[in-house]
Amino acid sequence: MVAFSRALLIGGLAASTALAAPPPNHGNGNGPGGPGKDKDKYNKLKPVSSKELVKDIKLKNLMNGAQKLEDIAYATPDRNRLAGTKGHNDTVAYIKKELEALDGYYKVELQPFQTLIMINGTGSLFVDGVDANAGLMEFSPSGEANAPIIVVNNVGCEAVSDI
Length: 163
Description:
Layout: H1 2-12, E1 18-21, H2 39-43, H3 50-56, H4 59-74, H5 86-100, E2 107-110, E3 126-127, E4 130-131
Antiparallel strand pairs: 1-2, 3-4
Helix pairs in contact: 1-4, 4-5
């Protein structure tokens, strides 16, 4: 179960708001919570070896973890983990539970956050007054920009004629 949890930690934390940090006074000594009452407990923990961690990660475990995250999202009416939705909250609860199952190595806490998410919107891009038929990225914040377009070689466009 530890291998699965470590794979999940690597593959799934970006999708959550669970905060996992090495125990206080472990590593550089500046972990969340400071030394606190658990100082002795955390000082006795062995640091994680990156070589051991890499050897412990298996493709099958990563795929199982990814499938679990997809299952959580698909178990909701909207079939996603958009911030603030049931899919997101269920994912956070799952990852928090998995991290807490690692024998208390991590101090896990949930932190509130606020974000603005665009659900519906419109977008447009005009180049020299001509509609460039651009798409809109879902869940992006609103905004307006008026600026010249600058061609940067070898970053998406090979020649000015590609624009």
